[in-house]
C-alpha cells in the first residue's frame, strides 16, 4: 500500500499561514526520480511513510525559508492507544 498525499493547488496561498511544496527525490546520475517508502508494521506513530524533497516558508515570529530540503509524509491514523491497525 502506497501513501496517498492530498495535493493542494499551487495557487492556494492563504496569507499568514506556512507555505509548502514537495517533489520526489531526484537521482541526477540516473536521470530519474524515486519515492522511498518506509514501512513500520509495529511502528508506534505510523505504519507507512514516504520521503522526498520539500520547500517551505513561513512569516511572522518564526520566519523560515527552506529551499530544496528534506520532506517526510506520513499517514497518521491513531487514537489514545496508538496506531489503529
Main sheet, how many strands, which sense, barrel?
Answer: 4 strands, antiparallel
SSE pattern, N- to C-terminal: EEEEEEEE
Distance between the termini: 13 Å
Poorly predicted runs of 5 or more residues: none
Which structural class fits the helix and strand makeup?
mainly beta
List the helices and strands and how they pair.
Layout (H helix, E strand, L loop, with lengths): L18 E5 L1 E3 L4 E3 L2 E3 L8 E11 L5 E11 L3 E2 L2 E2 L2
Antiparallel strand pairs: 1-5, 2-3, 4-5, 5-6, 7-8
Can you walk through the features of this model?
- By secondary structure, this protein is mainly beta.
- The chain has a domain at 19-77.
- It is 0% helix and 47% strand.
- The protein contains no helices and 8 strands.
- The strands form 3 sheets. Strands 1, 4, 5 and 6 form a 4-stranded antiparallel β-sheet that branches. It has a two-stranded antiparallel sheet with strand order 2-3. It has a two-stranded antiparallel sheet with strand order 7-8.
- A hairpin with an 8-residue loop joins strand 4 and strand 5.
- The radius of gyration is 15 Å and the shape is flat.
- The chain starts with 18 loop residues before the first strand and ends with a strand.
Amino acid at each position: 500500500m502506497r501513501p496517498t498525499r492530498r495535493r493542494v493547488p499551487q495557487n492556494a496561498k492563504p496569507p499568514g499561514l506556512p507555505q509548502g511544496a514537495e517533489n520526489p527525490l531526484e537521482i541526477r546520475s540516473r536521470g530519474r526520480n524515486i519515492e522511498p517508502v518506509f514501512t513500520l508494521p509495529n511502528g508506534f506513530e505510523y505504519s507507512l511513510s514516504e520521503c522526498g524533497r520539500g520547500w517551505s516558508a513561513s512569516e511572522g515570529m518564526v520566519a523560515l525559508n527552506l529551499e530544496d530540503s528534506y520532506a517526510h509524509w506520513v499517514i497518521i491514523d491513531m487514537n489514545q492507544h496508538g496506531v489503529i491497525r
